[in-house]
Amino acid sequence: MRTGVTAFKLAIAAFIIPYVFVMNPVLLLQDWTFATLLPPLITAIIGMVAISAAIMNFFIDRTKILERFALVTGGIMAVYPNDIWISLGGIGIIAIIGLIQYLRKKNNQTPGQADTATA
Could you give the angle at which helices 84-108 and 34-56 cross, rounded to 10 degrees? Predict the structure, then answer.
């Protein structure tokens, strides 16, 4: 059972990405320019990072259950094709969760504790 759950966590991106390509063919470099490629590429990357973070239960800090739902929702909104406002709303949700987790992690550190990621 544990192996199957781990396999699911690792393979979720491989399951979602083909649908993103079908819904937004510019990501496959069909009829593209830099102006048409960059927004969907950036939002797809951010969305997939958010979905992966929700599944792995870690973004900037360990995620709580509501943060996981928000990350999945924001990630799906970010990869939604052909509507930049929905994608920007998803990125906004992801940014808010990132800010919440950053502040929580910063407040949980003791004053003398060094950040191990920068050391």
Answer: 40
